[in-house]
């Protein structure tokens, strides 16, 4: 468990960590601690800021972070003009005129504004079933969680029998 570190993408880390859930005799708190402890600092900080309390939530939030971050990193950072703190900015560099800056449509450049919006939508698949959704929205996730809980219960019963 200690050898697993978040070095690549969060999606890869979440996938590898979910495979580690098969290890018996680890409490939910231990699993959550290990998951958080091995994240890169920026991701751990964001999960703590959001106040995640359980492993399933932590994994879902972490997966949403990677999708958001990929969308941001795929575009070049614009030069800072305007009031970015309040959501403003240089509207002209986004393909909109000042009047059309309220996202009414692109400025006569052949639909370039719509193409830009499509570019930033996450195009990832669920790592649990490879479906067109995030793992946190996976219809098979409940079944997976039920199987994991059943394995934990069996392991605890075996442990109780051995120690009785």
Layout of helices and strands, plus pairs?
Elements: H1 10-20, H2 28-37, H3 41-49, H4 55-73, H5 112-119, H6 141-162
Q: What is the distance, rounded to the nearest whole angstrom, between the alpha carbons of the first and last residues?
A: 29 Å
Q: How would you name the oligomeric state of the polypeptide chains in this document?
A: single chain
Principal-axis shape: globular
Biggest sheet overview: none
How many β-strands, per DSSP? Answer: 0
Q: Return the string of H and E elements.
A: HHHHHH
Which ranges are low-confidence, i.e. pLDDT below 50, for 5 or more consecutive residues?
89-107
| Total of DSSP H or I helical runs spanning 4+ residues | 6
Helix content: 40-55%
SS content category: mainly alpha
Tell me the strand percentage band: under 5%
Mean pLDDT: 70
What is the radius of gyration? 21 Å
